[in-house]
Amino acid sequence: MAAVLTPPAPARSGPGALPRPRRRGGRRDRWPLLPLVAVVLLPALPYGTSGGGGPADMASGVAVLVCVGRLLYLRRRPLSATAALVLGLPAVGFAVATVTAADPAAALPGLVRYLQVFVLVPVAVFLLLGDACGFRIVAGSLVLLAVVQGATGVHQYVTGTGASYMGEDVRAVGTFGPSDIMGMATVVAYGLLAAAACALRTPRSAPAWLRPCAASLAAVLVVPLTLSFSRGVWIATAFALLVALTLAGRRQALTSLAVLGAAGVVLVGGFGVGSKMIADRATSVTQVTRSPDRSVSDRYTLWNAAGAMWREQPVAGVGLKGFPAHRDAHASIGLSSGSDTAGAGQEFRRQALLSPHNMYLLVLGEQGLIGLTALVGSWAAILAGAVRRLRLARSRGPAAVDCGLTAVALMTWQSVNFLYADIGGPTTVLSGVVLGLAAWWALAEPDRVSAA
Questions:
Q1: Torsion on CA atoms 248, 41, 415, 97, rounded to nearest 10
Q2: Which of 127, 225, 258, 438 is the most exposed place for a label (fewest CB within 10 A)?
Q3: Helix crossing, 231-248 with 250-265: angle to 10°?
Q4: Please, what's the b/e burial string for 41-71 (b: 16 or more CB within 10 A of its CB; e: otherwise)?
Q5: Which is nearest to 285 in space by CA: 252, 237, 250?
Q6: Of the ranges 131-140, 266-275, 307-316, 401-410, which one carries the lowest mean pLDDT score?
Q7: Are 424 and 34 in contact (CB under 8 A)?
């Protein structure tokens, strides 16, 4: 008898039906990432001021508007209760510090800036990423920015066209100039950590060349990071790498440490990336308490001034943007009038010391215990949630472990680096992007962080 062909049964609907897989990753789903990519890449454009209002800040405003428009169009609940609490908590401290400031009108620009960097941009990143593929696109943009800035910095060191350091124009600062001495080091560290995380746990669907390429980029980016002469960035990057290696697994950690050791030997011994300047700078890390240089002494003085402001106003601080106005009344006479900047196409100028170069002390002095508790509590929740989800993801095959390693490494770096730096300059908005990436991994729905 001829076989009877029966058409497949139609898909059932109702309580007993299997859920249809949600299709993600189409080109139409990726266009909201464009403003986020612009936020990441636009700091590479030379910009003549260290304040806000640059191209990257404008792109961040576009990203927020796109996010709001999508929420209104799709009519979705924007955040879970947990995510809304964690991401919105810092706004409480910002608002209190503004209302209780001696001059609330003068504090308003600070309120806008803090809301942009620590609330609005992270929320926009959280909502626009979509899935692990979107995360990887933004992380890849960080790597691209690091490569461009790193190559510029190495060229500055080789040709003697960088920022002035110990009488020579050799400090690698990229396109940020000597007025934003930490800019290149920051973006290179971001890219290095993202590339290292990809090399440690490459996505299963990735081509075979991605792992060696990511590992090579991470190793190469060590060179401009070293030539930045930024001790705080060195410490934060080393700590974040150790955390990522530990969480990646014992085998990956041992292999990566061996590769990093070999790369260090080649760079220092083979290519001579280890001049006396770099060696002296590295040695000075252990001498910041015994025989600190002028920059460290000024930093200690500014830290003490921030602490004195907090003791004067322990609950709500002196108000947002209040540190410069209260600095002289709380700092000792040993504080210098400013730091000298020159080179990289800029004439000699004296740059005023208007912040303590410690984000935690800046928040404590300007926002008091309320602001510090709200901000650090939010960051601690994001970091703890990211580590917890990463540990769970390692035992579950479909999870995008590379995204988790990137998120934890970047959040760890940001938390440590804020011990030696605060916000300011064109790269400030990138702090919001990093917080958004970490928050997405830590707080997004489980199906969104599955491997793409």
A1: -150
A2: 258
A3: 140
A4: bbbbeebeebebebbbbbbbbebbebbeeee
A5: 237
A6: 266-275
A7: no
180-199, pLDDT tens digit by residue?
888 999 999 999 999 999 99
What are 399's strand-pairing partners? 450
Please tell me the distance from the alpha carbon of residue 6 to that of residue 348, in angstroms, as a whole number: 84
**What pLDDT was estimated at residue 352?**
72
Secondary structure (3-state) at 343: strand
Alpha carbon 445 to chain centroid distance? 22
pLDDT for 277: 64
- What is the SS3 assignment for 380? helix
Q: Does an H or E element contain 168, and which?
A: strand 168-171
d(CA 326, CA 328): 6
What does pLDDT average to over the chain? 83
